[in-house]
Design a protein that fits this description.
The protein is α/β, with parallel strands linked by helices and 276 residues long. It has 12 helices and 8 strands. It is globular, with a radius of gyration of 18 Å. InterPro entries: Amidohydro-rel, Metal_Hydrolase.
């Protein structure tokens, strides 16, 4: 695919690196760091947040996180550590019963893991995918609050905005809801998330898989400082996400905020000239 022609410096807050055969087999794709970097360059993306893809059930993310950090060296990637947990993210009676008995296993994230990642200069934030990996225990979330690093949360129909509010937003840390909190293609949930931005000053959204122009424009116009560009690469070529923002009926200044200013302000390692 040909590179896009534009004058924007673009930072991507959502990319996935599959660092080993286990991750590739689980997620069903095999895209090398070199190819991902090349696709980013074609789209004009200068830096990107990267975290591991899904691990097989019962497997820790420790090795995958360290592999992503290693693969990010000398590349325009900023590593985020992916965390898991024993708690069911659902809000029904079955989830409530399960959570009464939820005990942390050896492969689940622990408070000490969060502390280690927080003080390791290879990592600049965290990623949660609750509907896949479960929710961490409260002591882990408290350690995340103490670390005060950005937490990217994959929300949507299986972990909707009201669940995010219930489980995470009482903690004082920056939370970024991937896909406007409405994956896949749920405009009602996306609009619910935008309503939450009025209530929570440290809540942000990123744009991956938000295919509704009206919803994107609402987010950018109503909350110009809290919308971050995300592509969802390599599931989607970053050119696709860039074009969706470029075709919005908003000013170039607002586009520059989404593409670069907002992500760099929230995640300093993404800023121009930052040492990564």
């Amino acid at each position: 695919m040909l590179g896009l022609e534009h004058d924007f410096r673009i930072i991507d807050t959502r990319a996935t690196l599959d660092p080993d055969e286990s991750s590739v087999a689980t997620h069903g794709r095999d895209i090398s760091p070199e190819r991902l970097e090349r696709e980013m360059h074609q789209a004009g993306v200068v830096r990107a947040v990267a975290s591991p893809g899904r691990r097989a059930s019962g497997r820790s993310y420790l090795r995958a996180n360290n592999a992503v950090a290693r693969l990010s060296i000398d590349r325009p990637f900023v590593a985020f550590a992916r965390l898991n947990g024993p708690r069911d993210p659902g809000d029904g009676p079955v989830a409530a019963v399960r959570n009464l008995r939820a005990e942390r296993d050896d492969h689940h994230a622990r408070p000490d893991d969060v502390e280690q990642y927080s003080y390791d200069d290879r990592f600049h934030g965290f990623t949660l995918v609750p509907h896949v990996d479960g929710l961490p225990n409260e002591d882990v979330l408290a350690r995340l609050e103490a670390a005060d690093l950005p937490l990217i949360v994959h929300a949507g129909r299986k972990f909707p905005p009201d669940a995010v509010e219930r489980e995470l937003l009482d903690y004082d840390l920056p939370v970024v809801l991937a896909s406007f909190g409405g994956y896949p293609l749920d405009a009602d949930l996306m609009n619910e998330t935008l309503d939450l931005l009025d209530e929570y000053d440290r809540l942000y959204v990123e744009t991956s898989a938000v295919r509704y122009r009206e919803v994107l424009e609402r987010g950018v116009l109503e909350h110009p400082d809290r919308v971050l560009f995300g592509s969802g690469a390599p599931d989607v070529h970053p050119n696709v996400g860039v074009m969706e923002v470029l075709t919005l009926d908003v000013s170039e200044d607002l586009m520059r905020r989404v593409f670069a200013k907002n992500p760099a302000r929230l995640i300093p390692a993404l800023a121009e000239g930052a040492d990564i």
